[in-house]
């Protein structure tokens, strides 16, 4: 859930700003001075919205728009082709996503959020509060690159550029460019397409650059960070079961979970997922160890069907069940760390007797859905964990990048990797959403210019072309609204 203090701070800040603005604009003494100050600095304030516009970047935009005209012509022509395909592709993508969402609702199953092609992101619900900085930074950069595309393309097509600006709506940052509307309407439909498609084109290129940095990142950081040898612990939550004197610590390198090797963060998640889906595995323990470590205690069965034989008197002793020579199962209360020392996983006695004749497969008798998990992080002693694998998974932050030198930060590769992922996803989403033929989005102007450029000879009357465009825009708007509404409902209903 979204933290209440964060909501209070955001709402309180906006209310204070709006009340101050209302007081100053209604005050006879300060009104003219205040409005002049806002105008001079290009500021405008309205409820939950603040906007800043400036002309200090105009010369820079004109410089970019006149740099290598032929190259820019090819560049924005490619963007025009991409934008047209993206407009139709976004409709198909939204349609498939809507069908997927409806199928999940009809099946009355939550489904996997990662399985859907598009999903609504809600801070505090399916976006960790700790990653808000990445989220808003990626949104702002994606928005700026988007608007720079429009601005440079407009200058290239001889449309007057009035200014560049930024805004904040509630908590979401964004950017915009101010173009001279009359000039924009006078250029040809193809020129308009180059301008209108430039935003989604630049978002696509930004996402592509993120991919080109993310995937070869191990090679880029190879002189400083090693990969493929384990998962490095970067943070352990205080309330996590992995914390404590015999738990995990920052800079520990996890190499194995049970008998599952861990060479990266993906391996860590895969191993824990496999453990949670399979029944509790056993551990090969010699009969001599059983006789030496076992001490008698009362055996009783829990409500969930598991057996307890340690009396819950010790946090380090665990009840193991096993069978000898095919007889009925027996139970022994053993100190877990000593019993499991140098043992390996098993499913039956036959597996154990391949390596040691006098050994049995002893299975921890613990509550359903919980697991006894052994985590290797040499040179420290193995960490033993009893509980739900998901609690272990999300209580520890890991990185696949291991510093070659002690002075290097363990967080830098994680920051680069996470930021690239957010830029790729959010810039790509901005490209897809803006390409949708929907009212008030770039897709509206892309569609109108596309119809003017392609159907003016087939549909002679402009009113008929506008009517066709209206119905397409209406369909696109309904499709986008339905996706957002159902996506929000699916997220908040979890």
UniProtKB/TrEMBL annotation:
Enzyme Commission designation: 3.4.24.85
Keyword ATP-binding among record annotations: no
Stretches assigned to the Peptidase M50 domain: 134-473
CDD domains assigned: cpPDZ_MBTPS2-like (cd06775), S2P-M50_PDZ_SREBP (cd06162)
Intracellular or extracellular location(s): Endomembrane system
GO biological process, one term: membrane protein intracellular domain proteolysis
Class of this enzyme: hydrolase
GO cellular component, one term: membrane
UniProtKB keywords: Membrane, Transmembrane, Transmembrane helix
Membrane topology (UniProt): Multi-pass membrane protein
GO molecular function per UniProt: metalloendopeptidase activity
Pfam families named in the record: Peptidase_M50
Family the UniProt entry places it in: Belongs to the peptidase M50A family.
Listed name of the protein: Membrane-bound transcription factor site-2 protease
